């Protein structure tokens, strides 16, 4: 959508529900649109509007387009909570030069829950002609009840292998390439070219025709309770890292950097891994980079910025993370997408200094990250929203018209600093792949 493009006119009608919907059961089995954690979240059914963005100005362009659409929309919303009324879900690419599209999607039907409040929103295209007004009662038809959920379908599962790189005779070449990249990153850091470089690698598989994607989504939602489980335009995952939450003038974020693999079946060894993370100067140093990058990016947009006094250990089923929570108040009328654009890319997914780290990633990673380590989340008509960094995730490709098979590519990485060991960094990526490989398993 450009400045010359006509602004779509939408009508959103929200009505409260008197019972808790099963959001996961309502999702489309082949193309789910979901945002879910515990007793909060939403599911989209159908699609009323899709906006596409590319390039270095994708966040700014999206924020501008959404502000115009929200201003032109007719919203009937007695619920009046963040995430009710007109809502779009979106996913944004990591790199300015990425071939992957960044999108905002307005679902035709949105069923949502916030703790003990539930609602349903229908969004339709409003009449274009002046004076052509639809009957408002027609817009609320069908909103008294939730659409019928679909029974779970088949899930043969996915076997992941290291991604085949161009020119590699064997898939193992991608592992060797990653290890070489870590060594080169350490050398550049020792020469002073950067302080931290986040390097990722990829694995890939195939999703069989007719597979019900709600199966891996349910596994993620049930196992990773402290994460947002999401599915937007084929981007599926469970992220532990809140990039930004902006509601009614209050802003919060969670920064994760520094990782140790869990040993859930060996409590003493697991506690040792946690303690090593908390006392590691390397991990604390890496974490401090990440926190400072968020503080610096947010400062122009907020006031009363607060952070945790010390990093704390965040326990997930697969890893321990060093975590810091931040809170603030908006100092100006910035939408959630504008805040995302100000923050991205953080040191947690790129490195420090940002420009040098991003340039190194483009040179050392032999693939386009796509939407991995970008942003995924939602925004409403007031500009409120919640966005996470797209981590512990996989991107599905287009469906093969002949076989019905879809490719799926998962990505995971870690922060390289002085003293990083390639084999240790590789092991960290294995731990970070676990949420996806276990969720997609047969």
From TrEMBL:
Its EC number is 5.4.4.2. GO terms for molecular function: isochorismate synthase activity. Signal peptide: none annotated. It comes from the Bacteria. Residues 176-432 form the Chorismate-utilising enzyme C-terminal domain. It is an enzyme of class 5 (isomerase). Pfam families: Chorismate_bind. Belongs to the isochorismate synthase family. This is isochorismate synthase.
């Amino acid at each position: 959508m450009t400045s010359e493009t006509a602004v779509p006119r939408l009508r959103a009608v929200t009505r409260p529900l008197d019972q808790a919907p099963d959001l996961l059961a309502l999702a489309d089995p082949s193309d789910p649109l979901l945002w879910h954690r515990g007793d909060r979240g939403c599911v989209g059914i159908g699609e009323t509007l899709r906006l596409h963005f590319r390039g270095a100005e994708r966040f700014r362009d999206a924020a501008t387009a959404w502000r115009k659409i929200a201003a032109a929309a007719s919203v009937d919303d007695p619920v009046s909570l963040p995430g009710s009324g007109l809502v779009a879900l979106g996913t944004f690419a990591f790199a300015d030069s990425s071939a992957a599209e960044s999108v905002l999607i307005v679902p035709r039907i949105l069923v949502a829950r916030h703790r003990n409040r539930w609602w349903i929103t229908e969004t339709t295209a409003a009449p274009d002609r002046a004076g052509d007004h639809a009957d408002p009662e027609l817009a609320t038809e069908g909103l008294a009840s939730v659409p019928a959920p679909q029974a779970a379908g088949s899930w043969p599962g996915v076997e992941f292998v290291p991604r085949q790189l161009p020119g590699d005779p064997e898939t193992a070449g991608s592992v060797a390439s990653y290890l070489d990249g870590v060594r080169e990153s350490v050398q550049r850091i020792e020469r002073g070219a950067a302080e931290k470089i986040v390097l990722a690698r990829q694995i890939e598989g195939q999703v069989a025709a007719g597979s019900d994607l709600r199966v891996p989504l349910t596994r993620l939602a049930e196992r990773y309770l402290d994460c947002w489980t999401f599915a937007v335009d084929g981007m599926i995952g469970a992220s532990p890292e809140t990039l930004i939450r902006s509601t009614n003038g209050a802003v919060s974020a969670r920064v994760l950097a520094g990782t140790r693999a869990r040993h859930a079946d060996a409590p003493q060894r697991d506690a040792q891994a946690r303690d090593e993370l908390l006392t590691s100067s390397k991990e604390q140093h890496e974490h401090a980079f990440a926190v400072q990058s968020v503080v610096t990016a947010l400062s122009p947009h907020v006031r009363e910025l607060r952070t945790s006094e010390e990093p704390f250990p965040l326990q997930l089923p697969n890893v321990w993370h060093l975590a810091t929570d931040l809170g603030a108040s908006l100092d100006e009328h910035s939408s959630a997408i504008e805040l995302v654009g100000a923050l991205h890319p953080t040191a947690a997914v790129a490195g420090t200094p940002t420009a040098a780290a991003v340039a190194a990633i483009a040179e050392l990673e032999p693939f386009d990250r796509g939407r991995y380590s970008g942003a995924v989340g939602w925004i409403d008509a007031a500009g409120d929203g919640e966005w996470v960094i797209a981590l512990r995730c996989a991107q599905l490709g287009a469906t093969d018209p002949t076989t019905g098979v879809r490719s799926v590519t998962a990505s995971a990485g870690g922060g390289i600093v002085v003293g990083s060991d390639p084999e240790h960094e590789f092991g960290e990526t294995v731990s970070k792949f676990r949420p996806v490989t276990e969720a997609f398993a047969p």
